[in-house]
Design brief:
With about 575 residues, this protein is of the alpha+beta class. It has helices at about 5-10, 20-30, 40-50, 60-70, 80-110, 125-135, 140-150, 190-200, 210-225, 240-245, 260-275, 335-340, 355, 365-380, 390-400, 405-425, 445-450, 460-470, 475-490, 510-520, 525-535, 535-545, 555-565; strands at about 135-140, 160, 165-170, 175-180, 235-240, 275-280, 285, 305, 305-315, 325-335, 350, 390, 430, 455-460. Strands 2-3-4 form a three-stranded antiparallel sheet, with helices on one face. The longest helix is centred in the first third of the chain and has 30 residues, at about 80-110.
């Protein structure tokens, strides 16, 4: 296998998996040769061709993710298809990769990288951030999405010999990508009470695979990416924080923490931690270590838990002193799972918090379609093809309706789900690309031969489009700082040219414009003003920029109090 063999490969022949890094490098280098960091790509490509476990540079990883997963969506790759991707979507590729190359160039030139105070990457309270921003982040990686879908339903698992539960991982093309295997497992914990409670959780793990488990995979991953970690890479995970995220509070009803709700959360965390992951030939395989018996069949160095547990915290009854249950723990994703998490968030998609808050019992369809659309909108925003239609059949398969549903019920459920997502602001609008011929509805095989082949246009809200266009790394912080500076400059009144009241804002009501003007008048930065108000600077910035979807009542009260106080000084 060499560059020569790749050069001789016909343009329309599928490229072998091991050759893909070299093919990608050859196609990309011409567009990025001005960057010193791009010189590392040749080493990355050649090393990956020899060893799939090789850790490439961040820029090459993002390049691969952008081209192979986001743009080509895992399709078999030819040199012609790869060339077309660069021709048609070079702006998108540059948009994704260039900031990392600029950052890496500093390293190659031995220049320090300026710390731009990217607060969102080092949050001490990711729960508050998610609530204020009404979203969490989830990985865009197709392998990660397969894992999430696998843990979303216990019916995907079938019991085999010796009590082993197995689930095949099938991609959208119907190809087997891996296997999920679940057995009861435990961890070594310092206290006997802790191990006993953990074992009791493990007893019910097979019943713990549902949409709530899928939510938890996203939530824990989001927290780990953004939250402060200890020296060993663990974060503190508290069941109450998840319950806060899941608390839909339209009427300002207080959250009541119940022990059984904590148990539901921790039981599913135990289920996730019982799964083991291996990567072989770029296929995801999920297995349990107890089933690995032959060293010749498996490379043990590639096997890891999906999540590692370091310690747990137990709640005790105040009167009896008896342990009641686990309510918190230290957790981290395994190295293999961490490869899907780019801490710059360039390969993450924002997921509306409303999708997390939907009931995993009664609103399952809303969760599944909401997640699917979030992923598709990210991809389509990058490829600038938001009006690409969705096939009805694909949406029905995604929703995974019970087999007992007839065609009429399936159609009603799909359209109701789309209407509810629109009502909740997750969808901007949806419509059939061509009118439904009702005379064909109800005929023999009408779902398969007619309605299932129709196309739907489903458009995201403008806020979602903007979120998907944003960069969440250091470049974003720089742009945000400059945009804020410019906005304050544009909105500020030139007090030197207007001679009226000593305090021109004295009788002006609260508004994004008046707040921006007051901040400028007081010679404050956004960060300083936010600190005085008692809210995060990102929340204040969104208010000033009129980007807040549903303003938080408590924050608005704080802002009004600060505004009234400042303008009357």
């Amino acid at each position: 296998m060499s560059k020569l063999m790749l050069d001789e490969l016909p343009d329309r022949m599928v490229i072998k998996q091991q050759w893909l890094p070299l093919a990608l490098y050859q196609e990309a280098i011409g567009f990025f040769s001005q960057y010193n960091a791009a010189k590392q790509w040749q080493i990355d490509a050649e090393s990956l061709a020899q060893d799939v476990t090789y850790q490439a540079s961040k820029s090459f990883k993002v390049l691969s993710e952008c081209v192979f997963h986001t743009l080509l969506q895992g399709r078999p790759v030819t040199k012609a298809l790869l060339r077309e991707a660069f021709v048609n979507y070079i702006d998108t590729i540059i948009y994704e990769v260039e900031p990392l190359l600029i950052e890496e160039d500093h390293v190659y030139e031995n220049e320090p990288i300026v710390d731009l105070e990217v607060e969102q990457l080092n949050l001490l309270n990711t729960t508050e951030d998610a609530l204020e921003n009404e979203r969490i982040f989830t990985s865009l990686n197709s392998q990660y999405l397969l894992m999430r879908d696998t843990v979303s339903s216990s019916k995907k698992f079938n019991e085999k010999e010796d009590g082993v539960f197995v689930s095949d991982m099938i991609d959208a093309k119907g190809e087997l990508r891996g296997t999920a295997e679940l057995r009861k497992d435990t961890i070594s914990l310092p206290e006997q009470d802790q191990e006993k409670l953990w074992l009791s959780l493990m007893e019910s793990t097979i019943n713990a695979f549902d949409e709530l488990t899928a939510d938890l995979l996203d939530i824990i991953s989001h927290m780990w990416v953004l939250q402060k970690k200890d020296a060993d890479g663990y974060i503190d995970f508290h069941s109450d924080e998840v319950l806060k995220l899941r608390h839909d509070n339209p009427d300002n009803k207080p959250l009541v923490i119940r022990e059984r709700d904590r148990f539901k959360i921790m039981k599913r965390v135990a289920a996730l931690s019982s799964i083991w992951i291996s990567m072989r030939e770029n296929d995801v395989k999920i297995v349990n270590k107890d089933t690995i018996k032959d060293n010749e069949d498996y490379d043990f160095t590639t096997f890891h838990r999906m999540f590692d547990i370091n310690s747990v915290k137990v709640a005790y009854d105040k009167e009896t002193g008896q342990p009641k249950g686990i309510y918190a723990l230290k957790i981290k994703p395994a190295p293999i799972l961490r490869t899907y998490f780019d801490t710059s968030l360039q390969t993450f998609v924002p997921l509306d918090l409303k999708i997390i808050q939907y009931s995993y019992h009664t609103q399952r369809e809303l969760k599944r379609l909401g997640r699917y659309l979030s992923y598709q909108w990210k991809v389509r925003t990058l490829s600038r093809n938001l009006k690409q239609p969705f096939k009805v059949r694909t949406l029905v398969e995604t929703l995974d309706f019970p087999a007992s549903y007839n065609g009429v019920l399936v159609r009603d459920k799909l359209e109701q789900t789309l209407d509810l997502l629109t009502k909740d602001g997750i969808i901007a609008e949806w419509y059939y690309q061509e009118p439904v011929d009702e005379s064909r509805v109800g005929k023999r095989d009408w779902v398969k031969k007619y309605w299932g082949e129709l196309n739907l246009i489903i458009l995201p809200p403008q806020e979602t489009i903007e979120d998907n266009r944003q960069k969440y790394g250091k470049m974003a912080a720089l742009l945000e700082k400059e945009r804020t500076k410019q906005q304050l400059l544009n909105s500020a009144v030139d007090v030197a040219s207007v001679v009226i009241d000593a305090n021109p804002l004295k009788d002006v009501p609260l508004s994004p414009e008046s707040v921006a003007e007051l901040i400028d008048q007081c010679k404050l930065s956004i960060r300083s003003a936010a600190a005085e108000i008692g809210m995060s600077h990102s929340t204040l910035l969104r208010y000033i920029n009129k980007e807040a979807k549903r303003p938080n009542k408590a924050n608005m009260q704080k802002l009004q109090h600060w505004y009234d106080k400042k303008r009357n000084i």
